[in-house]
Amino acid sequence: DRQTLVAVLQFLRRSNLRESEEILRREARLLGDDLRGTAAAVASSSPGVATVAAVPPGKGGLRRGLRGRCPGRDRVVSHCVFASSFRLSYKLFFYALAVGGAVVEDQPDVSAVLSAYNQQGDPTLYEEYYSGLKHFIECSLDCHRAELSQLFYPLFVHMYLELVYNQHESEAKSFFERFHGDQECYYQDDLRVLSSLTKKEHMKGNETMLDFRTSKFVLRISRDSYQLLKRHLQEKQNNQIWNIVQEHLYIDIFDGMPRSKQQIDAMVGSLAGEAKREANKAKVFFGLLKEPEFDVPLDDEDEEGENEEGKPKKKKPKKDSVGSKNKKQDPNAPPQNRIPLPELKDSDKLDKVMNMKEAARRVRLGPECLPSICFYTFLNAYQGLTAVDITDDSSMIVGGFADSTVRVWSVTPKKLRSVKTAADLSLIDKESDDVLERIMDEKTASELKILYGHSGPVYGTSFSPDRNYLLSCSEDGTVRLWSLQTFTCLVGYKGHNYPVWDTQFSPYGYYFVSGGHDRVARLWATDHYQPLRIFAGHLADVTCTRFHPNSNYIATGSADRTVRLWDVLNGNCVRIFTGHKGPIHSLAFSPNGRFLATGATDGRVLLWDIGHGLMVGELKGHMDTIYALRFSRDGEILASGSMDNTVRLWDAVKAFEDLETDDFTTATGHINLPENSQDLLLGTYMTKSTPVVHLHFTRRNLLLAAGAYSSQ
Length: 712
Description:
Elements: H1 2-14, H2 18-28, H3 32-45, H4 50-53, H5 61-69, H6 81-99, H7 108-115, H8 126-139, H9 142-148, H10 152-165, H11 169-179, H12 188-195, H13 200-204, H14 207-214, E1 217-222, H15 223-235, H16 239-248, E2 249-254, H17 261-267, H18 300-308, H19 321-325, H20 346-360, E3 373-378, E4 385-390, E5 396-401, E6 406-410, E7 416-419, H21 422-425, H22 435-438, E8 440-446, E9 448-451, E10 458-463, E11 469-474, E12 478-483, E13 488-494, E14 500-505, E15 511-516, E16 520-525, E17 533-536, E18 542-547, E19 553-558, E20 562-567, E21 573-578, E22 584-589, E23 595-600, E24 604-609, E25 614-620, E26 626-631, E27 637-642, E28 646-651, H23 652-656, H24 663-668, E29 681-686, E30 694-697, E31 703-708
Parallel strand pairs: 1-2, 3-31
Antiparallel strand pairs: 4-5, 5-6, 6-9, 7-8, 10-11, 11-12, 12-13, 14-15, 15-16, 16-17, 18-19, 19-20, 20-21, 22-23, 23-24, 24-25, 26-27, 27-28, 28-29, 30-31
Helix pairs in contact: 1-2, 1-3, 2-6, 9-15, 10-11
Keywords: Nucleus, Repeat, Transcription, Transcription regulation, WD repeat
InterPro entries: LisH, TFIID_NTD2, TFIID_NTD2_sf, WD40/YVTN_repeat-like_dom_sf, WD40_PAC1, WD40_repeat_CS, WD40_repeat_dom_sf, WD40_rpt
Family: Belongs to the WD repeat TAF5 family.
């Protein structure tokens, strides 16, 4: 309330925390005059600050209001100075009250989270309240029933937790047993956790419960359905349910036709309901950056081929068709200097020339021309294969293993060699043309190099675009950077406190991202030992991470069953995609940067339009977790690999054509997915008994797949 705010503002001023005071006043829309007037009223109403002590922390507006407004959950930590300084002053403020004789709880966070459950009604009537609402929804018109049925799960959870918190254990048990079977099947894992919370003491340390309480469950409902619900609860004077709806749910109301059961089922299933429509309104620069122009000289063999046919040699150097496409600036691309990117070295330019030559010989894929697939099976992988990556030029493959080793293989006749010792290097003529060959030590040449350093299973690996470095992340909480010149560890990045599930280099090198059990993703630069950005907002482990092709955005998939898109520049979350019914394990951006494909334990591949923030497709066919997704080099085909031992190829061109992205669809989320995705399936390829953990298209569009043979 106003008096509490004024007292806090005065305390901040006395503590010389001017910046926090200014921000709080702006947030609360209190001007200087208001402050003086209300301060006088506070002073006259009671001596000291006893009035403020009457407001318990977490009860009423102060703590909860700030929790709602602080940008910390969705933004970079460095941008939350206000939040942390205010939290400090908040604790100091209530400490001051405690010294003055008021009683303050030790943990304001936990008490704030749980205190709302004190507003309880008659515990014996909870079952009656819930079944009354259930009966009303089931008897309502079909068009409203599907939308209002979304209320069942969050109401069930909050009513159960309220009974447990207020120590009505037998009523809570009876309530759970009677209604838990009515919930949607994709909430079964959450309900299993909930069933273990049977006493008030269990609630204080439980992360799932705290998540459910601190983040309002989001429901998207049409205005007509909402008015119907409101009228029913007011007529029945069902205050218990109405209080939960207002206190713990966020109802995102839209004007227009109610959504069908199919449309709702496509979007729900995450830990905190659907995404608010506002969450997907920010502008996203999904276009590609303009490529630097290169002259690609003709190969000798090309020239010979042309002469054999009796055609004259072309004088002009040949330009690559892909390069020429990118001459014009993409209207959806970010400004070239929006984020600082590393300058191209000579070796990078040479590699780009090679890439363009390969692209000129690339096979154009489509329904009539499917790629050949080459499968790398790891045999006798008793160490337990946990991660795979392949270099962009398909010359090396790396495996991360449960025995904490990282193993690098050469998949070309060229063996892996280390750089010579310092003493030997001093004898080399640095001016010679083949100096890069001379510095390599032939005695060290081998097909396989084993890298030791981690002290736990290695869950993610990623080669740098220039193939000079390799990243690995592990259960030991570190990300390591290895040199592929010396095959030694250069840096151990320590920032995560728990296992790190995934890491990936930016397509331009230098930057990389990691995500782990601590629920945050971190952006790093290879020459900084501290993260540059911390992306906080997921409610469970960050299981997979991917850079957008223009390197300005990062996608993260999580066990909270959502995918988020983060802006590298400012750390903001610019997209939240809900619809998966299980933890997400694979992400892939289309080569043009416009679309994102996601795969999860539910065996579905979902397709998203990044610009409009909409789901535009659903590919069903896999019977188990999808661990690998990859678009072909030109984006015509999407390959998916799963624990069901299959690789499936999908027609990406057909999946993305004729998209309905009109204003109404964008505003309300009335997506219309095709009933059957089988007409998009171009082929299914089974392995004998090898789950697919990685997919990679070569520069000429040969598909490489990898996994470890499983004898079970």
